[in-house]
Write a structure and sequence with these properties.
The protein has 286 residues and is α/β, with parallel strands linked by helices. Helix content is 39%, strand content 15%. The strands form three sheets. A six-stranded parallel sheet has the order 1-12-9-8-6-7. Strands 2, 3, 4 and 5 form a four-stranded parallel sheet that branches. Strands 10-11 form a two-stranded antiparallel ribbon.
Length: 286
């Protein structure tokens, strides 16, 4: 068996095209273009690349770039003041604080300055609570992107056995909740799980977001399973994921590559969240 490759780039293009049409419809209905405020603190090269891509694709979708850049030695109060200023600006539909921030800053406290209705990363306590209760709200971009990939490839979730490896607030926990909301039977595995491979072998749908390069091999995959690799790491031979791709490709039915799988979906869903936020703020939501 050789797995079908899940083309995240293609699905992300579809999402971005939908968002661009949505922005046009918003303007035609008398609304204003969504404004996305990306906030970058310091000069971390990887973060700079991520933010540059987010800004470029938001503009391509017809949004207004409201980027802010703070020096790496900025103090907590100044960073909070900027977020408060953006939160009060009617031209700003969504606010994204690029993480991680420099270690001297309390990033959790900074995220809490972002109003839930402008929290396009889906990380505030209120949005996390809405997700936990199955109520409408802005969802974290990466797990939302995984769900869109599963739907694009017609992966049946109702009644399926799903295993999520990882329990971070950014991916693992919301991923499990989104799958549960679609009637999957969900197990969360983590660093304290006894025999992770045995747990993973039960999965019809396996989502790996552990942050450990090459953690999952063929011995942890049920034949024909759908395997989603959220990890991304720079190795000696380029970018690699949490899944040993070549090995798992011989067992899985569907498999995301790294790069080109989940990564492109994260920015696409950020743009979708920003449009959703703008429509709600302007009273033009669905």
């Amino acid at each position: 068996m050789t797995a079908r490759v899940i083309d995240g780039k293609a699905v992300a293009r579809e999402v971005r095209a939908e968002v661009a049409r949505g922005v046009e419809q918003l303007l035609a209905a008398g609304g204003t273009a969504p404004g996305l405020a990306t906030v970058l603190v310091g000069d971390d090269p990887a973060s700079e690349v991520y933010v540059r891509n987010k800004r470029r694709l938001s503009v391509e979708a017809g949004m207004v770039d409201q980027h802010r850049h703070l020096p790496g030695d900025v103090d907590q109060a100044t960073a909070q003041d900027l977020l408060d200023e953006l939160a009060a600006d009617p031209a700003v539909s969504g606010i994204l604080l690029q993480l991680p921030t420099p270690k001297h800053l309390d990033s959790d406290a900074l995220v809490l300055r972002i109003p839930a209705e402008r929290d396009v990363d889906g990380l505030t306590t209120l949005n996390a609570g809405l997700l936990a209760q199955g109520r409408p709200g802005l969802r974290p971009c990466t797990p939302a992107g995984v769900m869109r990939l599963l739907d694009a490839y017609d992966v049946e979730l109702a009644g399926a056995e799903a295993v999520v490896v990882g329990r971070s607030a950014l991916v693992g926990k919301p991923m499990a909740q989104l799958l549960l909301g679609r009637n999957a039977t969900v197990t969360t595995a983590h660093s304290r799980t006894k025999d992770v491979a045995e747990v993973c072998r039960r999965a019809d749908v396996l989502v790996v977001a552990a942050g450990i390069p090459g953690l999952i091999g063929a011995d942890a995959v049920k034949p024909g399973a759908t395997v989603i690799d959220v990890g991304i790491h720079r190795g000696e031979d380029g970018l690699v994921g949490d899944v040993r791709y070549d090995e798992v490709a011989e067992v899985a039915g569907l498999l995301t590559p790294v790069p080109g799988g989940v990564g492109p979906m994260t920015i696409a869903m950020l743009l979708a969240n920003t449009l959703t936020a703008a429509k709600a703020q302007q009273g033009l939501g669905d």
